[in-house]
Amino acid sequence: MAANDDLREIYDLARRAMECQADLGHKELICEARESGGEQPSTQATELDTTTAILEDDPVILEKTEFESLEKHRAAICECTNCTLGSTRTKFVYGVGSPQAKIMFIGEAPGRDEDLKGEPFVGRAGKLLDDILKAMGLSRDQIYIANILKCRPPGNRDPQPDEMRLCMPFLKEQIRLIKPTVICALGRIAAHGLLDTTTPLGKLRNQWHRFEGTPLIVTYHPAALLRFQKYKRPTWEDMQELLKEYERLNENES
Ligand code: SF4
Q1: Measured from the CA of 149, which atom of ligand 1 is nearest?
Q2: Positive or negative, the Cα torsion across 113, 90, 152, 157?
Q3: Do 106 and 174 belong together in one domain?
Q4: Which of 92, 205, 225, 249 to pair with 108, CA 20 to 30 A apart?
Q5: Domain check: are 37 and 132 in the same one?
Q6: CATH number, domain at 134?
Q7: Gap from CA of 189 to ligand 1 centroid (Å)
Q8: Does the beta carbon of 84 sit less than 6 angstroms from any atom of ligand 1?
Q9: Looking at the structure, do residues 28 and 143 belong to the same domain, yes or no?
Q10: Is any ligand 1 atom within 6 A of the Cβ of residue 169?
């Protein structure tokens, strides 16, 4: 077990070095190794694939793996340390709700309360989301809630592009397994991550987008509603539109 821990530590150090060099724009990985016997460091250049700055035999590289169920997927990735957030999280936050949900809500990342509980959208923002769902005639066990990142960024800072890139395959697999009819992106960062855009949230509202073929609507994050009352009405309008499209698509299917 100790040997495995040592190996993991070496993997983590190597992976972080690769990520740092990728961040610096290096196309090659520069490895410096000091030989025993005190010789000068030898330098070896290796082709660096900047799209996967992670080790090939890392057990959590599962981008192309399809799972039978959310439970099996969760079990396979819950020890993930593919980015540095894996070493600072308290709890891994996979998602919550019905595996057969037709409506899926997606936020950006766990916050402090979510990190402590291991569940997305708890605390005041989560309570407000529950109230919104109730007003829509829904409850948490009828829908599914997840974040792009499964681990909390320290201090609730914004997720970094590399963190979202490394974590996005996990969300895509959740969506593949759940097969929601419609997706709702909660907040600017979730919308930007899912739609790969920097368009302001206000301009992304009032229209339907697609994520991997699934219709997607954008609205404000519940935490923003706690700070700005003025967002409550437009959010409710977005939820009405979401329900309308969901019912329309359901009718077409039946
Ligand atoms: S945020 Fe995602 S990629 Fe990073 S360690 Fe957590 S699960 Fe892995």
Answers
A1: 1
A2: positive
A3: yes
A4: 249
A5: no
A6: 3.40.470.10
A7: 16
A8: no
A9: no
A10: no
The answer to whether position 180 is within a domain reads yes
- Whether 36 and 76 map to the same domain: the answer is no
Residues 65 and 219: their CA atoms lie apart, in Å, by 31
pLDDT digits over 228-253, tens only?
A: 999 999 999 999 999 999 999 988 87
pTM summary value: 0.77
Convert the pLDDT of each residue in 16-71 to its tens digit.
445 434 433 344 444 433 333 333 333 333 333 333 334 344 545 556 689 999 99
Distance 54 CA to ligand 1 centre (A): 12
Q: Which residue(s) pair with 96 in the sheet?
A: 145
Distance of alpha carbon 130 from alpha carbon 85, whole angstroms: 27
**Residues 76 and 40 occupy one common structural domain:** no
The CB density around residue 142, as the number of other CB atoms within 10 Å, is 15
The count of domains in the chain is: 2
> Which are the contacts of 134, defined by CB distance < 8 A and separation ≥ 6?
none
Nearest atom within ligand 1 for CA of residue 166: 3
Q: Are residues 248 and 192 in the same domain?
A: yes
Tell me the residue range of the domain where 18 lies.
2-47
* Total residue count of the chain as it appears in this document: 254
Q: Identify the H or E element spanning 198.
A: none
Residue 117 domain-assigned (yes or no)? yes
